[in-house]
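Saturday, quiet lab. Running sequence design on the structure tokens for the scaffold JK sent over.
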């Protein structure tokens, strides 16, 4: 459903309790919501501090805008194992003026999906040439290939291929994600020799990757073209290696918090 499951009136007493708890713990509640990122990051940061979570760099990074790993400066979470990836030859960034056939076959649909992401603030059109973009984003400009993923269980969605333009191979992700799977759940049975009924809870965040805002200076790395027009992502696109890495950190924190 597109609307929130709870009204402001229902949430109000819980918000008051949380404010009183934070104030009694010596903190100032801040319900500010960062532009393009619909989460109360300052509140979550306060909770993260109070629970002494090891990933103390997560929420400051989200508030400031996260890095892609292109500058090799993603801070460690202290929760996941270190990546074993060895330094390899880094390909040059490239700019592709065409997209994958899945995007070209139905231009009207592709254009509609791009417009939806513009309306949500995830993508912004760039008024200028590739040379203009290179001047505005001196760190680097990469134009990947856009694709449209189709599935029987969900609506079509955009995928940005950041490998073909050289970006994914140049993004250094210092850790590898290891979140629990269904197999881990099965391995817990019988749970402390308890044979009664069990209850499970599953939470799925819609467009999860795109809830992560990227640093302004690195947005030039997340470009694509459509019918001669330049576009750039300001959030983590589906198809970039760092997108899954950052969401794993935030999803992992939610799991520890619960």
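Result came back. Writing it out in full:
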């Amino acid at each position: 459903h597109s609307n929130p499951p709870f009204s402001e009136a229902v949430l109000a007493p819980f918000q008051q309790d949380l404010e009183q708890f934070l104030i009694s713990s010596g903190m100032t509640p801040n319900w500010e919501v960062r532009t393009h990122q619909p989460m109360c990051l300052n509140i979550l940061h306060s909770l993260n501090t109070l629970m002494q979570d090891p990933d103390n760099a997560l929420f400051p990074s989200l508030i400031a805008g996260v890095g892609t790993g292109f500058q090799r400066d993603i801070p460690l979470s202290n929760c996941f194992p270190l990546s074993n990836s060895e330094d390899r030859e880094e390909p040059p960034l490239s700019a592709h003026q065409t997209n994958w056939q899945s995007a070209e076959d139905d231009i009207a649909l592709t254009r509609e999906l791009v417009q939806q992401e513009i309306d949500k603030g995830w993508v912004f059109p760039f008024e200028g040439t590739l040379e203009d973009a290179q001047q505005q984003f001196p760190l680097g400009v990469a134009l990947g290939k856009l694709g449209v993923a189709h599935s029987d269980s969900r609506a079509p969605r955009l995928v940005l291929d950041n490998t073909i333009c050289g970006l994914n191979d140049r993004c250094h992700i210092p850790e590898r994600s290891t979140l629990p799977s269904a197999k881990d759940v099965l391995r817990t049975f019988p749970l402390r020799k308890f044979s009664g009924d069990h209850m499970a809870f599953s939470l799925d965040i819609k467009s999860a990757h795109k809830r992560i805002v990227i640093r302004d200076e690195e947005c030039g790395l997340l470009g694509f073209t459509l019918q001669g027009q330049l576009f750039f992502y300001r959030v983590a696109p589906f198809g970039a290696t760092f997108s899954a890495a950052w969401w794993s950190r935030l999803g992992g924190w939610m799991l520890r918090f619960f």
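Notes for JK: The CA atoms of residues 46 and 52 lie 10 Å apart. DSSP finds eight helices and five strands in the chain. Ask whether to fix the surface positions before the next round.
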